[in-house]
Amino acid sequence: MRHEQYSHFLAGCFGGACGVLVGHPLDTIKTWQQASNSNVFTATKQIYVRNNGIKGFYRGMFFPFVTTGAINSILFGVYGNHMRQLRRVCHSDYQREQLEYKHMFLAGSIAGFVQSFIACPIELVKVRLQTQFYYNEYVMGQRRTPFNTFKRILKSDGISGIYRGLLPMMCRDVFPYGIYMLAYRHTTKFLDSTPFVQQRREGRKKDESQVDLIVTTLAGAWAGILSWVCVIPFDVVKTIMQAEENRQYRSTRHCLVVNFRRYGMRSLFRGSWMLVVRAIPVNAATFLGYEYALEWGQKYRDFYM
């Protein structure tokens, strides 16, 4: 039982690290677009020129590489444990089957809510590092590090400062993560029922991995796209609020209204194409890492216990 409680946390940590490794350059372009209200070409050129080459696309990667593992550990861990608890309260297999999708959405939403409080300070530091050469090229007079950035925010704005952008982030993460988990499981179930996948499974040896690369990749990519398309304006507002240091926006609503009046409706969907493109490899890699890690953990448990 204890192994089941911790396996989702460890698998989520590994999956999150895989996602960052694949998607950070695209995330940097998306963040720069949203912060500067520029198109893909302009953002890519500015990142390359102002950071003296290709390394600009990987700026601030080490911090999210380490911390996103922790965020996804909480996300998948809370999701997996809540699913187990929700299944346990069902009185029969029939009731469990009927409520399965509702439980997935509820468990995913709860996981999204919990991880928001951990992810917000981490994303704040990541955004500041990614956009430092747009907003604050010579403010500090030295190269910024995650620790120095975090310390500067805490010193100037206090505890509330490290949770800047929390509300739009919760709008982006809570219910969409319910959709995320639901879409992934529903898609894997649909793909597993197709003749092509069934034939692949029949030809697979018992000692081979039971994780289907094609199914997991397609389901992860689709879940990422579906969960993101509805919440792009919230992600834009979150990025704008976290990127600027002057605190010119009093609230989420104020930021939304000011940018709408200044740049129009289009600005609230800035970076949407890059966000969707990024969602495909990132979420495919995240779920592949998650599923493989769960399987490896199960094999380890069966071997030593």
UniProtKB/TrEMBL annotation:
TM region(s), chain numbering: 61-79, 211-234, 273-293
Primary location group: mitochondrion
GO biological process: mitochondrial L-ornithine transmembrane transport
Annotated GO MF terms: high-affinity L-arginine transmembrane transporter activity
Membrane topology, as annotated: Multi-pass membrane protein
Subcellular location: Mitochondrion membrane
InterPro entries: MCP_dom_sf (IPR023395), MCP_transmembrane (IPR018108), Mitochondrial_Carrier (IPR050567)
Keyword set includes Repeat: yes
Solcar repeats by residue range: 3-85, 99-190, 211-296
GO cellular component: mitochondrial membrane
Keywords assigned by UniProt, alphabetized: Membrane, Mitochondrion, Repeat, Transmembrane, Transmembrane helix, Transport
Membership in a protein family: Belongs to the mitochondrial carrier (TC 2.A.29) family.
Protein name: Solute carrier family 25 member 45 isoform X1
